[in-house]
Amino acid sequence: MKTLRLLTTLALAGGLAMGAYWSSHDGRWSVHAEATPAPARADRTPLYYRDPSDAPLWSAGPKQDDRGRDYLPVYEDDQVTAVAPKPPQAASSRKILYYRNPMGLPDTSPVPKKDPMGMNYVPVYEGDEVDDGTVKLSPGKIQRSGVKSEPARRRAIRVAVKAPGTIQLDERRVSVIAMRAESFVQKVADVTTGTRVKAGQPLMEIYSSAVASAAAEYLATITSKTVGGVEMYGRGSRQRLVNLDVPEQVIAEMERTRVAPVTVHWSAPRDGIVLERNAIEGMRANPGDVLFRIADISLVWALADVAERDLGNVAVGQSVAVRARSFPGRIFSAHIAVVYPQVNRDTRTVRVRIELANPDAALLPDMYVDAEIDTADSAPVLAIQDSSVLDTGTRQAVLVDKGEGRFEPREVKLGRRGGGYIEVRDGLADGEAVVTSANFLIDAESNLKAALKGFAEGAPQASDAGHATGEHK
């Protein structure tokens, strides 16, 4: 028994001499060996200090644990006594390039690190960032962001130019009844402003001494039996009646009956609406006085004002859909007949004439309308959705989907827009897939990655400068 106690005492003394210590757990004692601190070296500066019991604790300067033991210094080339902090093991065997801020801030670190909130920096592996100008996203991020792609295809761009306008009369379908000689209105038919009349319908009864004299002369000529020059003289007398604007049916009646009328019945020259009635029974009409004005509104004009910026897309013959504000939902189809060669200096618009069929007389003069000009070109062009374009004002770019989560920013030159699509004149090939949604998120990701990459490239230089400064000191 004395021999056993002696051996135990010797073992305890030897263990304490070697830096070991005893601990009790559940009444049982066990001995723990401590690492012997490495001798301090005056010519080098420790990188950091580690816990003497190999616990995962480190310190930037000299420190003691809760038992009063000094932390062990770790030098840059210390392979025996230094135990460097072990970075989190990556699930992949790829090389870690650097660690980036978990909150997306432009801050990187060449070694594992925590942010002020205690969050671990995220490792960036080799291959996550490539130098071919593409942006790579994980499948999960693509799904969460709602990224969608669509191939560029050749299609006809439908560009609709909208312009306000008014309904006007067709200048070629307006007739005026005016006397060419001094006359008197004997009687006026039951016709008022706004009345619809037919061609040949009586309007008024006129007495004119000039017309009566010409009619008598013409009848005397055609009834004369004198031979020689009568035929030529008769043609001259008839032309005089025509020059006085005597209706053709009145002249024909004179030739049939061989009677010169005292008064002449004036009739409507065309189908239309009476726009103006100035004839009054018993009035005296001087040469040039307008007694009736009649317009045919079966065909009218829509004069629309097209903005100057849209003039290059407008041409004669293009189809137009005209909507009258008085008839919601009704569309009047027509074509552009004339593009007037003048720009309004005040409104910076160009007037176009659209000829409209108006069989039911629904469109009235001075009525407001809205014209939508279809400028679609039958020739298909390479086009993409307008949501695909990232426009900075001076440059336009798209994100080309290269597959496997890689996206390439590419500058393009654009053309006409319309129908939700934009013509691509340069920068894309037929069939290349471009991102149509969430492209702004990818663009932000690419900017962030570029910033992080710049910080990562500058980090080793800053570290080397720090070491150089420490050695210099």
From TrEMBL:
A GO term from the CC aspect: outer membrane-bounded periplasmic space
CusB-like beta-barrel domain: residues covered: 300-375
GO molecular function terms listed in the Swiss-Prot or TrEMBL record: transition metal ion binding; transmembrane transporter activity
UniProt signal peptide: 1-19
Any GO BP: copper ion export
Cross-referenced Gene3D superfamilies: 2.40.30.170, 2.40.420.20, 2.40.50.100
Pfam family, one: BSH_CusB
Keyword Transferase: no
Key words of the record: Ion transport, Signal, Transport
SUPFAM superfamilies in the cross-refs: HlyD-like secretion proteins
Domain CzcB-like C-terminal circularly permuted SH3-like as annotated: residue spans: 383-442
Domain CusB-like barrel-sandwich hybrid residue range list: 174-295
Protein family: Belongs to the membrane fusion protein (MFP) (TC 8.A.1) family.
Protein name as it appears in the record: Membrane fusion protein, Cu(I)/Ag(I) efflux system
Source organism of the structure: Bradyrhizobium shewense
